[in-house]
Amino acid sequence: MALGEKLLELRRKKNLSQEEVAEKLGVTRQTISKWETNQTTPDFDKIAPLCNMYSISTDELLTGKKNNNNLQAINDNSDSKKDALVVSGCVFLYILSVIWIIISTTYFNMNEVLSVCIFLFIIGISTSIIIYHFMSKEKKKIKKELTREEKLLKQIKEVLSLVFCVIYFFISFMTMAWHITWIIWIIYSFVIEIIKLIFMLKGSDIHEE
User: Fold this and answer.
1) Sequence ranges of the domains in the chain
2) What does DSSP assign to residue 55?
3) Cα dihedral sign, 73-74-75-76
4) What are phi and psi of 177, to 5 degrees?
5) d(Cα 106, Cα 97) in Å, to the nearest integer?
6) 162-177 pLDDT, tens per residue?
7) Which of 150, 144, 5, 146 has its CA nearest to residue 64?
8) CA nearest 90: which of 58, 133, 50, 36?
9) Top-ranked range on mean pLDDT: pick from 14-23, 98-107, 138-147
10) What distance in Å separates the CA atoms of residue 139 and residue 208, rounded to the nearest whole number?
11) Superfamily of domain 3-63, CATH level 4
12) Count H helices, E strands: the chain?
């Protein structure tokens, strides 16, 4: 696509008239018309204002090629915001679960077993949200995806170790059955192995594709 056609298309996308563009750039309407009909080309000092007005890079304006690095940066930034939102929400649920188990037995005089069950339910929901969010992300290039999976697995293990630690101490203090509650760590080991297996299977699917 010629530069003039590109300028015409960009102006129409912004719903601007030639007069409006001319006023913003400090040129005449005829100048804009000549640019868009390829009779003349914009002066060098007008390229940057044109790009700012149409929200594109100089590369895209002059060569027609989009800057993939900028798009990738925008996508990565969007993903980071989503990750932060999910993690923040789950941390809030973890804190809420601790508050719940404290006030349910202290102020509501609730049965301890029922209180612990609700506590574990909240913990389970927040953990499931974290795992689902990170595991349902779109697959990228194999090498990058494997590296990201390794980091994700490490993060999941850290979160689960914290969750199981909280569960272990709360159940142990509430039941005083320390000779039994150590079984929680066996369950933790099984859960970690299952997650590792899921990651291995996921990695195999990526290679097959």
Assistant:
1) 3-63, 82-208
2) T
3) positive
4) -100, 60
5) 14
6) 888 888 888 877 877 7
7) 5
8) 133
9) 14-23
10) 13
11) lambda repressor-like DNA-binding domains (1.10.260.40)
12) 10, 0
Give φ, ψ of 192 to 5 degrees: -60, -45
- Could you identify the residue written with the tokens 């929400």? 89
**Tokens 């509430």 belong to residue:** 174
With 0.70 as the threshold, say if the pTM is over it: no
The amino acid at residue 8 is L
* C-alpha dist (Å) from residue 64 to 59, 67, 70, 90, 159: 7, 10, 15, 43, 46
Q: Which of 155, 160, 139, 159 is nearest to 203 (CA)?
A: 139
Task: Kindly give, in sequence order, each residue whose CB lies less than 8 Å from that of residue 198, ignoring residues fewer than 6 positions away.
Answer: 135
Identify which of 198, 201, 186, 195 has the alpha carbon closest to the alpha carbon of residue 159: 195
Output the pLDDT for position 19.
92
Nearest to residue 61, comparing CAs of 74, 76, 46, 71?
A: 46
- The pLDDT of residue 78 is 64
Q: Each residue of 144-160: pLDDT tens digit?
A: 445 566 777 777 888 88
Where would I find the H helices in 26-111? 29-36, 44-54, 58-63, 68-106
